[in-house]
């Protein structure tokens, strides 16, 4: 699951926090393998300031699921402080951890941190990651970059310093990509990191895999479809009609109508998801039929299989989390059908 | 309680994390009013990288106790990111939150963040706090300081930004002081913040109160002893002999012998705690008798009352947390005796 979170703006931070932790517990119980949590400071719908807070609260109440910040926006933190925290959390989760990194897409998140334009964000991200890797080596170093400095002390007579090495010696890393020929997915490929394709139409999924694989190949690294995840909106119910109602009238419908459609139109993404349509003609039916994956277990399995076939496939489907706080039962039942009914048909 | 934490260096982060959360739950159950958690990135004994992680994991499992980062070291974070996270956590705890702030005392923590000397730490702290207060106003602003920039966006046609105002509109703040005429406690007094006197002998407690009260009076602010906390090492058992054994042979003894005595000697603090002694002559008995507060409920109540009388008193006693992970029962019983037997004698 990918818990962005798409929680309605009127929800309190405590409601957002509780819902996110409860969903982590539910996903773990149902056998989901990964739970990603977004990070934003200024967005009214995507409103978790630090995904590690959800991870900390979930660590003791889950057993198997990986808990993944998705993504820490590197230009907005002191990279050495973040690296130390990340290493610590890999131990707290006993290795059930993939670090998502990003350079920050929203101008308001940048403005909050005093960045007046975002042109340096990618360079800051690369430099921050370099520092973080140094911190995880847990050996004395000194790094003086264009944006940040960091170092690690030699032990002295009074102090033996704590290891800042991660659990198992290595932090597993993932990057999400959304745009065509995504630079983030190239970067992931070049470094052998995991890739998340944020849904922007079927053409994008194929393009994202090619971008990722090509960069990896050029760097002499072997990646496979198991490293490749696709993030989708999915709703399952016993019948197509019930699933449609749960989607359109529920949290996913509200999020799209009130937040995502305007945003996706602004960035040309809705057009990418519906390449054959005139945006003026798009109705909610088009979105139900052609963008979301909605239906009975059979319908959803068929639709997912068709997308796999058209795009070459992927290792893990990440389902977007949505705000079903007022009545969580049908949403959790959708998750259950997805694991118990849909997944076996896909194997 | 003040969970620095003094956990042995060989403890894993997961053990430190679980012990800290379990202690928060136990302290809440016993009626403790505040639970402070330290923040350090490089220390082998004081090894929690971000106290909010403990607070997040404790928020759902505690009811009344205030959960307090003590302290966030402001020069080591992006102040706007920290401010947004702090505001969010005041809501997650539904107001059970006091923000401890500090400027960072350990050179290794500074070196990790690329600060080659610490001479700017105090100025960075003041500027970071200024930015954080601006963020908590949750109104458009632009701040360009000597060390940091930050801002808050105007709403635009596509986005209504999320409030970054804290629960109840205000963040309660506390500062800890250790040195004579502590600049931190002056700062706390001038701003009407809470004060924590970290134990450095009885003379220091009296000095700390005077420093704090005088700064407040000069600023035209009224503070009282209720705002004043003293942090001490305390162990209670049914008899003096049992308490002594639990202290000397347990976590508190280990922390002092292996970590704190060398550190306290280095900074002249042990001399301040034992002003009439030659440091070469100090034995563990001196520390049990004159530095820690150890004994039966009657003994501990007498000792605490004597210190109160000698120093003018304080509002809240904060007990240092210690590593009783291998057998937590006698330690928790000590906490229980403190609340059930000692506290009523002090009222």
UniProtKB/TrEMBL annotation, chains A, B:
Keywords: Flavoprotein, Monooxygenase, Oxidoreductase. The keyword Ligase does not apply. The keyword Oxidoreductase applies. Signal peptide: none annotated. One of its GO terms (molecular function) is oxidoreductase activity, acting on paired donors, with incorporation or reduction of molecular oxygen. Residues 9-310 form the Luciferase-like domain. Transmembrane segments: none annotated. PANTHER family: BLL0895 PROTEIN, LUCIFERASE-LIKE MONOOXYGENASE. Belongs to the bacterial luciferase oxidoreductase family. This is LLM class flavin-dependent oxidoreductase. It comes from Rhodococcus oxybenzonivorans.
